[in-house]
# Entry
Amino acid sequence: VRAVVSYFGTLKGMKRQDLAREIPRWLDEVGLTEWANRRVEDLSRGMQQKLQFVVTVINDPDLLILDEPFSGLDPVNLDMLRGIMVRLRDAGKTVIFSTHMMEQAEKLCDYILLIDKGRKVTDGTLADIRSAYPRNVVEVELEGETDFVEALPMVCGVKRDGRMLDVS
# Structure
């Protein structure tokens, strides 16, 4: 693990003394310190995902482009990575990432570009997109008792059609 990070850091023009400082710091930050001398093949998918992130940020780039950075991560590591990404963004770094997890995009992004089959569907700030698509309705099909849905605190209204509910 350490050798892989060192190799990519060297490719990115980092000096040996900078690598000696940054590798332990980043491995500790993502919880891979104990795996520093292990083979990459020994890592779980989530650990490999964290290693890929470390390789990406090791040289402190101003621009990060990440493809599905949360894939394979459990909730604890997802929160950890999200926190690091927010910290990097707040430090002035530009972070671009792809995701299928809209809740992550909504929490992390200042600007969203939604693509379907290679074509732009919409883009803008979350507020811009929400105002362009103001209908906040979810269609739900339920069996059995459905009266509890109207009592939920986040539900504004329910339109019933048999077992189908339009919940807003």
About this structure: The mean pLDDT is 91. Strands lie at 63-67, 94-98, 112-116, 119-124, 138-141, 158-161, 164-167. The longest strand covers residues 119-124.
